[in-house]
Specification:
The complex is a heterodimer of chains A (about 290) and B (about 270).
Chain A: H1 2-10, H2 12-15, H3 23-52, H4 56-60, H5 72-82, H6 85-116, H7 120-134, H8 139-148, H9 155-178, H10 184-191, H11 196-207, H12 209-224, H13 228-234, H14 241-250, H15 258-290
Helix pairs in contact in A: 3-15, 5-15, 6-9, 6-12, 6-14, 7-9, 9-12, 9-13, 10-11, 12-15, 14-15
Chain B: H1 2-16, H2 34-41, H3 44-73, H4 79-93, H5 96-107, H6 112-121, H7 136-162, H8 165-173, H9 178-189, H10 191-206, H11 210-215, H12 227-236, H13 240-272
Classes of the chains: A mainly alpha (about 290), B mainly alpha (about 270).
Chain lengths: ~290, ~270
């Protein structure tokens, strides 16, 4: 009884009817949630962890049983050494971090201008800008262009391509949001003699933080996990974590080495998982707050 | 940057699609529409377009159905529900390639699923889902939907949170049951979230690659070869002009589908609000 009262006081608006819902319904609901998690998530993740802990002979069977002897750390050590994971990790960081920062910064600057000047040419530029959101880039010719200017296979070339591809995503998210901010604030700053750059960094950018958070999360997910563009642009000269996984898994050396592939998958997922675990509340509320306006 | 790395290559793409550019020749000559004729005549063009469309539509259906069901299930802010939301978001942050390999291990012949089913019914069972020329593409799209359902769920949850509690209360006082409440009030009011989810999943998967590459590489017998798999395969063989031709076809395909889909979804939103 007391728990019901506490809830009633806690969320008066939402909980008025729910506190009247019979107890068995709540139990049924919780059971459904647990069953859904088990049915949808347990099998693949269990298989991932147990297989990564097995020896090659055991892992070949691909069953759900526990390994006879846990080899998880040994397998980790093997993939880090033979799979060149450290270089790939640095490759991933060297590409993802600058690409996301540049795309967000330039994207929000461009959006500010696009949102505030509503002339015909600006509307056209905006349409052109967000067309990149849905239209796939021409990957083969991008690669050839980079070869001509000597950036093929370099981190710089890859960063430029990602910025080019995802700038439109940022513009799409941010422009819609800026239009909801009243322009009177910036006008009063301008009257006080502030330069546009100052207005942007001290007023606009902080106001944009919810949408920028959402856009940053999506961009990190896309760029960190991308293989398709990396396959073309980096073409074996540099490595990122997913690209390395692709090479490792397709190489003859690793054929039928499920334990090593799975150990690799666990290790490569760790950086984002750790960030996500540390900031999950912010990330989830960021996405729910910023995506739909 | 957008101009240099997006628009210029796209324009160049339209030019090179009409040449015989390849790794085996030093010169690049125009050959008119030969690339299109070749691709059309050997059936690859239509087959790959069809496969890509099936793939994208199935993903849009799976991802949003799963996402909406989860959002409805996990709508209340209880501790268990919050935990479940976090768990369902883990596949979203994993690499599609990694997810593809894991599910390949589950679904392949004599993989984990076959063994569990065999143990359950007591004799040897093979589902062979990934070796089936009809169903493999649907299975892969279900997995892709599984990977992204956590994001769709969050966006639907965000949509549900924006619905005014008074509207729900009023409907309840008028005697609406849970079923009516959902279909006549909540679902229509989810329109903006629905637009975002359907548009991103449908258009994003036209441009898909990783999941298919990880699970079947376009096989069996080319039955799961979506356009980007073809682009990568012919690029690897040095047939650059065929690769660019297909890339251009993908571009046109997305443009043709995107405009009406977005127009339709936006009009639906306007009719509701």
């Amino acid at each position: 009884m007391s728990s019901v009262t506490a809830q009633y006081n806690g969320h008066k608006e939402q909980q008025t009817f729910k506190s009247q819902a019979p107890r068995w319904r709540r139990i049924l609901h919780n059971a459904t949630v647990i069953i859904a998690m088990l049915a949808l998530l347990a099998v693949p993740f269990w298989l991932l962890v147990v297989t990564a802990g097995k020896t090659q002979a055991e892992a070949l069977k691909l069953d759900m049983s526990l390994p006879d002897k846990w080899m998880l750390l040994e397998n980790f050590a093997t993939v880090i050494k033979d799979g060149k994971m450290v270089a790939a990790l640095f490759g991933s960081i060297a590409v993802t971090v600058p690409a996301v920062l540049i795309a967000i910064l330039f994207g929000s600057m461009a959006s500010w201008i696009l949102a505030r000047r509503t002339t015909k040419p600006m509307a056209f530029l905006y349409a052109l800008g967000i067309s990149g959101l849905i239209l796939p880039p021409a990957v083969v010719t991008v690669m050839m262009l980079l070869k001509m200017i000597g950036l093929s296979g370099t981190a710089l070339g890859m960063i430029c391509v990602y910025v080019g591809i995802y700038l439109s995503t940022v513009i799409f998210f941010v422009t819609g949001f800026i239009r909801t901010i009243p322009p009177s604030l910036e006008e009063s700053m301008r009257v006080d003699g502030a330069k546009p750059a100052r207005i942007f960094f001290t007023l606009i950018l902080p106001l944009l933080s919810p949408t920028i958070a959402t856009a940053t999360i999506l961009l990190i997910l896309y760029i960190w996990n991308d293989v398709f563009y990396a396959l073309f642009i980096l073409s074996g000269k540099m490595s990122t974590l997913p690209l390395n996984l692709y090479n490792v898994a397709s190489a003859g050396l690793y054929l039928n080495n499920w334990h090593l592939i799975f150990a690799y998958i666990i290790l490569m997922s760790l950086p984002l998982l750790i960030i996500f675990a540390a900031a999950q509340r912010k990330i989830i509320s960021g996405i729910t707050g910023g995506a739909v306006k | 940057m957008l101009v240099v790395f997006f628009i210029v290559p796209t324009v160049m793409n339209f030019v090179f699609a009409f040449t015989d550019w390849s790794a085996f020749k030093n010169t690049i000559d125009f050959n008119g529409i030969d690339n299109f004729v070749t691709l059309f005549q050997d059936g690859t063009l239509l087959r790959d377009i069809r496969t890509t469309l099936i793939y994208a539509v199935c993903i849009a259906i799976f991802q949003n159905t799963f996402g909406l069901l989860l959002a409805v299930l996990l709508e209340e802010d209880t501790r268990l529900n919050r935990f479940a939301r976090v768990m369902f978001f883990i596949p979203v942050i994993m690499s599609a390639l990694a997810v593809g390999y894991i599910w390949q291990a589950v679904l392949k012949t004599d993989g984990a699923l076959d063994q569990m089913l065999s143990a359950l019914v007591g004799h040897h069972v093979t589902t062979g889902l990934l070796g089936n020329t009809t169903w493999a593409i649907v299975v892969i799209s279900a997995i892709q939907g599984w990977k992204w359902m956590g994001l769709a769920m969050l966006i639907f949850l965000a949509g549900l949170k924006t619905i005014d509690a008074d509207v729900i209360e009023a409907a309840r006082i008028d005697g609406a049951n849970a079923h009516q409440l959902f279909w006549t009030i909540k679902f229509p009011l989810l329109a903006p979230a629905f637009t975002f989810n359907v548009a991103t999943s449908l258009l994003g998967s036209l441009n898909g690659f990783d999941m298919v590459q990880a699970m079947t590489k376009g096989g069996p017998g080319g039955s799961t070869e979506i356009l980007n798999i073809f682009v990568w395969r012919t690029f690897g063989q040095g047939l650059y002009s065929q690769s660019t031709t297909m890339s251009m076809i993908l571009f046109i395909l997305v443009a043709l589908i995107a405009l009406p889909v977005i127009y339709f979804l936006r009009r639906r939103e306007r009719n509701i609000f």
